[in-house]
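User: I've been going back and forth on whether these two constructs are worth ordering. Before I decide, could you fold them both?

Assistant: Sure. I'll take them in the order you sent them. The first construct and its structure tokens:
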Amino acid sequence: MRVLLEMRPALDGHAGIPQETRLLFNGLRTLQGINVEGLIQSSGNVLAKGLPTVEGRWHAPLTRDKQINRLSRVVVSLQQKISNAHLAAMGMAMRRMLGGRESLGRFEATHFRDFIWRMLFARTLPYENFDAVTCADFRIARVPWTAMHRCALLTKKFGYALYPRLDTSDYDVLIVETPYPAIVSPSTTLVVRYHDAIPLLMPHTISDKVYHQASHYQALRNNVRRGGFFSCVSDATRSDLLSIFPQAEARSTTIHNMVSHHYFPDESSPARVPEVIATRRNDRIAQRGAAMDESLRGSGAQLEFLLIVSTIEPRKNHTTLLAAWEQLRTERFPNLKLVVVGMLGWGNKAIVKKFIPWMERGELFVLADVPSPELRLLYKHARATVCPSFGEGFDFSGVEAMRSGGAVVASEITVHREIYGDAAEYFSPYSIADAARAIAAVIAPERNERRLELVAKGAVTSSRYLPDRILPQWQEFLRNIRAPGVAAKNGERT
């Protein structure tokens, strides 16, 4: 079975969907009977031409130097804007109306293994996987992913959303990480790795609301209507999908995310925690170093802290955690610090403004670009990792904390109950008092037995998400959707 896996998210970030994309690519390549290649596509840049998939009848084959020049230009175009995405969308709309298709070029990694490794895989995979992923084959979609969305939204204004046709005829399956703004070849089965329906069910929590909501809905609707299959990251996500499109029930299943190999319990010393905090401060936030350094000096094994690992944006609910932490400091735990790990997302200014007074006192620390081994250390030695989000599709941080030997306190949203089970202490994300209660129930000295209980349960619960438990589910799923007659029976490919 030839499978093409969308790699766009791997270019755009570290954790979450980018991490899952890398793990899935590497994992699927270990399965017998499945040949996986990667689809390189930019979110916003028009890419240079790759190599032709078939040599043209009227053109001589490209010499080696010309091949390398083309591939080199692809690398450059991924990082430097060379064309207007809006104009690209208009061009696609015209080609679509004339019955044209968007072809895929080839990318040979032979001379570009450094690029493939560092840009696509290094932020998640260990070096041991270098040869396996850099010797893989890749295809190139020149048109930007956002331009595909804009093409549909532009034509929708005239009555009907026209999505570009992507020539995927060389592949049995195309796996994409979000609702995909294109139509695949009739011989290809589209699989949407569906992470969450937040743009539709919680649109007040997303950035660029008008565009994000419209593009998600229209692409998802098109994927459903044309017979796409859905591999949802949780039962909660699948339930949300079916509440919107019940007709997708027979074509949807749940396959949970995989946890990275980086997270496991080790015998690391808590004495390294202050060093990690001091060296990984987020340099995008003005922080007065003197007070911070003084608060960390000599703390060693005595440093007591709560940990949250999440993009800093309103949906992640940092403000409730902050208020609960302030209450705990005032009432019972005056030396308890708060460590925040994550990128600055949309709407972060109001949140960061509340952080700053505590940061200046050396009691709250905002970190970024924390390597996985150091993050594992923080998970291990935090009094608790808190997952306070209002909405999630899966939420890696709690699972990673459990794998690392840490205790988890989480908001009682449906997906947390599903993923974490009885291995977490829960609270209402809307109640500061309840959050403080739940945290205290885990970190208080007299409740150490409860904390140890959660750590033990977390080791068992998080093992459900190891690759050797998840990959067989993918193998069965892919085999079933390619069974004779399945795609034709379920699809509406027009």
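The second construct, handled the same way:
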Amino acid sequence: MVRVTISDRRVNLRMYFFVNQGIGHSNSGVEHAQFYRAARFREQGLPFKLVFTDHLPQLHQHMSEWQLAEHEVIGLYDYLLSDDPDDYLQQGTRDPQVYYEESLWDTEQTQRLLFRQATGRYTETIQRRKRRTHDGEYVVVDNRVILENQQHRVAWHYQYDGENGKRPVNIHVDNFRGQHYLFTTQEELITFFFAELQRYFTQNVYFVDRGVSHEAALISLKQAGSPLQLGVVIHAAHFVGFVNGHPLWNTYYQYVFDHLAFVDVMIVSTHQQREDILSQLQTLGVSDVAHKIVVIPVGGVPAIAPARHWQGPTAKFVTAARLHVEKNLTQVIMAVKQLRDAGMSITLAIYGVGQEYAPLAQLIQTHQLADVVTLKGLSQDMLADMQQYDAFVSASYSEGFGLAYMEAMSLGLPIATYANRYGAQALVRDGENGYLAAFESQATAEAQNITHLATAMRRIFDNYDVLSRGASRRSSAFLNADIAMQWGRLLEALT
């Protein structure tokens, strides 16, 4: 019998990895940008894998929800627990399982033991205990996590770090390729994982969408001589301000700006953000990186719908976002109330799920807006759902691009939004395809901001047909075919 080693089964193929922490039932714009990019690569026949490093017991269920094939995804823990890791890297999980969980409760109704059948081919056991906080209160915490199947096992403890929450430590990986490993931190495990990908796929390009630990691991491998190329995708505002004449970067991007010499390409969605980055780097004396910073929108549209004609009498607004405080959806609701109270016939549909569902529902009830504002839940096809509305509204103070803006514009929907960097300012032209509302980020300015947003929403219907034509015209620069060509040019340059 011939023993097959990893060197025997290496794939001499350029592989493009889209690196993130995880996906779920509800996702942010980062995940949707990954789904969009995957579709363009899929259409072009380019080899790619989405890589997720969080523990995701429902991974395969969510993959199915978002139309990701098994061979298109690599999950860190699925890989570690695979009977045949090489086959998993190529084909994914064969015969995913149905997720279910069971709990054991003590006499005080404290959940002490949680058992899960993951959608991958392993089970999860979480042992829980009570601990006392600094305030003297008892809370229930995850003390130990064990993932296992018949032959393999991964286990860790959690270390709790105040406001930073918990992080896995002392991670035991048993019987991976016949060996046992101990990783002190998750960062060590992630570095090991990427080294494994480097051993199997021989020509790798990594596009990191989220995760400082991913950037650190890949840069450390690159410093050690591993032949890989690294791209970092900027999905949000990257800059906080100047401190003593030096730029202070967004925490998520501080590491990559500090190690820019090891980054092959940085991808932003707008020319405005590119110019800002180059200008800010200039203050540090960095002037030879223009070739590294490339503009490719994180999303686009398949086609452009004809412009609309508004017949009234009701102005039907729609918005789509995670139900999170940073999206300022309470301000959209209060702007709608302001317009209704002023006599405008108006409705608002809010698509999305998240932790703010209950507070938003309460706000709607408190202000007797149930017949005006509707929480629609998660949409699996926003292009189809938005067709029934007249205009799009957003109250976000910051957007790296704004996929929802783009989808709405392609349907001929004018946009009312705060003039945020970079999405709104790049996509919306005042009086051409919508209106930009002035805002200040301080909490004391909220009432004034709401009035500005309400004014922008009302003005749309003073000049609706012109704005609708402008929306269709503006979105024509973001067709899928054009964005696929931009990716093609970038990949050719990297090659």
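Notes on the second construct follow. The chain has three domains: 1-93+187-300+479-495, 100-184, 315-478. The first strand starts at residue 11 and ends at 20.
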